[in-house]
Amino acid sequence: MSPQLKLIALDADDLAVISTHVQDARVQPSDIIWRQGEKRLVVGMSRLDWEQTLDGEAEPRRLVAALRFDRVLACKSRNIDLEAPDKVLDLVGIEFHPQGGRDEEPGGSALLLFAHGGAIRLDVECLECQLTDLGTDELGMGVGIEGEG
Question: Given this model, what pLDDT does residue 29 score?
Fold first, then answer.
């Protein structure tokens, strides 16, 4: 069994590593929690355990994980139906675009890209992202991280 991951991203290269680990994760709109007063976005997900797959396991397992962005100034979504909280979204990846296209600037926009054109754009003071595994997703069901904080 692979150890549970806890990854932190403070720049675009770090975020590319996290993006690889969340590729093909399943997300429900009800597990996307925007805490504007805390400048935080938390996304609960069921992600594939890519390490287990690379280790030769025949059946990839899913892990429940939380993806957290801090120091978020604004959060906007496109083509995500918040009225269908149980609909499953497939996360394709995450990108970071520095403010003004200059890497030396700490701020910018993080884009969470979903299949079928869905997206979440986060305008951030600086990039602070964390991916934490919470356990195995034995039933392949929704994440349900209401108390996450």
Answer: 94
Instruction: At 30, list the tokens.
Output: 């009800």
The CA–CA distances, whole Å, from 84 to 28, 80, 89 equal: 9, 9, 11
- For 107-133, letters b (16+ CB in 10 Å) and e give ebbbebbbeeebebbbebeebbbbbeb
pLDDT at 147: 41
In this predicted structure, what is the pLDDT of residue 148? 40
Higher-pLDDT residue of 59 and 31 is: 31
Predicted TM-score (pTM) of this structure: 0.84
Place of tokens 């919470």: 134
Task: Collect all residues with Cβ–Cβ distance below 8 Å to 129 and sequence separation of at least 6.
Answer: 8, 9, 10, 14, 15, 18, 67, 68, 69, 70, 94, 110
Q: Which of 48, 13, 42 is nearest to 28 (CA)?
A: 42
**For range 83-107, the mean pLDDT:** 86
Give dist(CA 135, CA 138) in Å, integer: 9
Give Cα separations from 79 to 15, 118, 121, 126 (angstroms): 23, 5, 12, 26
